[in-house]
Amino acid sequence: xxxxxxxxxxxxxxxxxxxxxxxxxxxxxxxxxxxxxxxxxxxxxxxxxxxxxxxxxxxxxxxxxxxxxxxxxxxxxxxxxxxxxxxxxxxxxxxxxxxxxxxxxxxxxxxxxxxxxxxxxxxxxxxxxxxxxxxxxxxxxxxxxxxxxxxxxxxxxxxxxxxxxxxxxxxxxxxxxxxxxxxxxxxxxxxxxxxxxxxxxxxxxxxxxxxxxxxxxxxxxxxxxxxxxxxxxxxxxxxxxxxxxxxxxxxxxxxxxxxxxxxxxxxxxxxxxxxxxxxxxxxxxxxxxxxxxxxxxxxxxxxxxxxxxxxxxxxxxxxxxxxxxxxxxxxxxxxxxxxxxxxxxxxxxxxxxxxxxxxxxxxxxxxxxxxxxxxxxxxxxxxxxxxxxxxxxxxxxxxxxxxxxxxxxxxxxxxxxxxxxxxxxxxxxxx
Length: 431
Hints:
The structure is a single chain. The chain is 30% helix and 23% strand. The chain has a 9-stranded mixed beta sheet with strand order 4-3-5-6-7-8-9-14-13, sandwiched between helices. Strands 10-11-12-15 form a 4-stranded antiparallel beta sheet, with helices on one face. It has helices at 12-33, 35-43, 65-70, 103-119, 139-151, 163-173, 182-194, 223-231, 343-350, 384-398, 409-416; strands spanning 83-88, 98-102, 127-130, 154-157, 177-180, 206-209, 236-243, 248-252, 259-260, 266-271, 284-290, 301-307, 309-310, 322-323, 328-329, 334-336, 339-341, 358-365, 371-378, 403-407, 427-429. Helix 6 crosses helix 7 (182-194).
């Protein structure tokens, strides 16, 4: 069993020096073991001995999703006999990429989630209900299970969906926290209301939420977060942000003011379109360098996620960098009638409309070569007057109104969960 990571509580200067020592170890490993990075260092005439600080990283090129897709095998740093686990990315912005993990990488993943759970205040006395899948080549579900085991907490593996089974498990085993996609909590609330389940008095006290933002950049709850909070006040909501590529996570503490960096496991930069560091008051693309990954480590990998960062000490006592909520994905930015948008801004408006049961946002290229938006809305109310109400609400919030097309709730559900998907799809990019 691990104890709390002390490095989180050191000064910002001590954390920086610690990470820079780790960085130098990482560069030596990549130079020795990675076909992709060894080639890149050679072609660019980079002497890694000259890269000694995090600021020096700016002298190195970034790694992109396209690099991973084109040269997937060249990122593998170990012999096949050392590979224990194979996973793939979700493929949100293109073809999925295969990642391999060694036994040590699995231990690291377990430690990461142990740190994540302790950041959210969970202990060995807790019982976790896992509401995400452990299969379908999904790294996160396995990480959560192993992290809870590292923590010493009990685990009940229910998987995603099936509200009836979730409530039966909650009543039978009395878990105290869950790992969940937050919009599924709305489905649990609706099921409970329809079947006489007194969910407000259930054993669940915390929900650690993945895949969807719960807060605005100022950390106030967004529409989805507010609705869950109002309907289930006894349930505390914690955001956690992660990706397969980084094999690490950023999780909120009880202060709920951003996800904390784990300095032993990852270095994070925030870059603009020209790969330059942005100021603290500017949003930047989250760019990560993994520490201690041995199967497929990454150097300056641009995740595509746009966030603000926060460096002031947190009231919890940690001095680590914190990530604000994801504003959107760089590849999903929409330029619509002179307005720049990310899909979460559209979701936040749609989530305020009670008659909208579910939805899918599609962006495509119009006849004039510009971005066009079509929102497919699942609702029992499918009238021109309702379409006008939705459009007027969009105009009042973001100045522009997308096209609305109605469908049944079941039809939208089929769009959101195609057979091969392990995540709910709300955004379709047809550009």
